[in-house]
Amino acid sequence: MKSLKYICFLVVLITGMTGCKKYLDIVPKGKIIPQKTNDYRLLLDQILPRGSSNGFTQSFSNDVLMSDDMEVNAFSASFYKAASQNVLMFAEHIYQDSESDPDWEALYNQIYVANLVTSQVMDSEGGTPAEKNALFAEAKVHRAYAYLILVNLYAKQYVAATAANDPGVPIRKNLDFEEKLPRASVQEVYNYILQDLNDALGKLPAAPQLNLNYRPVEAACNALLARAYLCMNNVPSALAYANGSIQLYNTLIDYNTLPAGQSFPGTLAEPTGLQSKEVLLLKSPTSTESFFYGSNGLVSLYDQQNDLRFKAKFASDAAFGLNFGFICTGWSGKTPAKGPSTAEMLLIRAECYARTEKVNEAITDLNTLRKSRFKTGSNSTLIAATPAQALLLVKQERRRELAFSGQRWFDIKRYNAIDNDNITVTHLINGASYTLAPNSVRCVLPIGRKYIDLNPEITQNPR
């Protein structure tokens, strides 16, 4: 594929530029300003290696360190850098004054490029109207995904009664680096997300293609709408869009067909993430740190003999002469994809059914998923007599299926705010205990001081 040497707006951090009003009026020497429709295709097709903040597959990582799916022990404590340890300790600040936040930067870089595409691609040279419309829609889906992650990392859980007043994240709408970036409300951010996704519907291919699943499609657009509405506790809409995604594409991987030793099947283990039949939109972690021990709470949920997800996700540290527990096999470089999947859509639909007292439908979806995850011939069937029992089973199945894929931390915030589940997260590090109480202000990550220094209109989260 042709390599596009694009203008340096792609590598300059959007919140780190000031005094650049004429910046976009200058064609840098040796660079190419996108003009042809295919130039915009190349911009949106960036799938750079993990660790770069510019590729559209880059997503977020700090959620795992905030959650109760992993634990730290005497062996693993030394593997975490200072910033990661700050996240684990729910510290007042994560990054030093001048230090960058990889999650913030990766997502806002994508937003900036998406803004570029949506503002210019329709006037580009050489492409057909259909090609331009598709690129326009893809950019909107990428932008919506970025804002959905940002508002869930750096703002309170969506609660209808307070969302209009709760600080969300800055909505960057223009290409001017001197644009003011005050924080929009949580409600305004969600409105922006929903508008982008609805604008994209009807302009994309129906289902993902292998090796091209980093390109947004209708099934992924519906999936992100389902995810967003679930975060908003809008059950009817979440159900409708989960159904819409499943109707467009519903392929599941039968774990019994995987090669021996396969870990994190169908996820982003370069380059096999491109071969996944379940990933609707390929997104990966930003961090290269992925040495995680599964917590007792998570590991105990699996049928370790028959649930093939356990063997796919974990390895005993006894192979290394240790006796601490089970290491998430992401430590070898294979990390779970964070974009939406067909499995997640079944789980969203099952949760919506449980919350609307459709017990049989909820359990049917759970058992459909579990049949593809358990050893052939073993009993994977769940039963529930009440909506409350069904909802509990859904929550447990979400935790098993989506472990380390970016959803557990958001689920903790959601369950505590909506269901009063009172989930407390405690991390033990070097003999000290760090506890995050339900609905604590520190459930919201602090915004890097670097960005507030450069954009003082961005207010910090209370700590």
Automatic annotation (TrEMBL):
Keywords: Cell outer membrane, Membrane, Signal. Residues 22-230 form the SusD-like N-terminal domain. GO terms for cellular component: cell outer membrane. Gene3D superfamilies: 1.25.40.390. Its main location: membrane. SUPFAM superfamilies: TPR-like. It is found in: Cell outer membrane. Residues 343-462 form the RagB/SusD domain. The keyword Membrane applies. It comes from the Bacteria. Belongs to the SusD family. This is RagB/SusD family nutrient uptake outer membrane protein. It comes from Pedobacter hiemivivus.
